[in-house]
Amino acid sequence: MLEFARLCLTPLAIVALSCPGGVVEPQVSEQQAVDVARRQVLFEPEAVDAEMAADAQPPVWRVTLRGRLPGQSVFDFEEATVTVDAFTGDVIGVDQR
Hints:
alpha+beta, four-stranded antiparallel beta sheet, 4 strands, 34% strand
């Protein structure tokens, strides 16, 4: 019986180790997400921070942009966080402050 169980389970173990577990890598790179985010704001970003939120469903890039509008005082600045789908590159949301 033990030999039968080993013969039956061995192919399953090989398949389990060879499969990526259904995990698909995001198709959108960090630079692509930043490029998409830049097109969503009216100001020229002076600082950009991109972070992958792989635990989100779907996985997303959260790109935060900071900068000034033309002619804006040095004491004022704009900030926006753009959420970009890591698989499609679609904009999921824009939060401007």
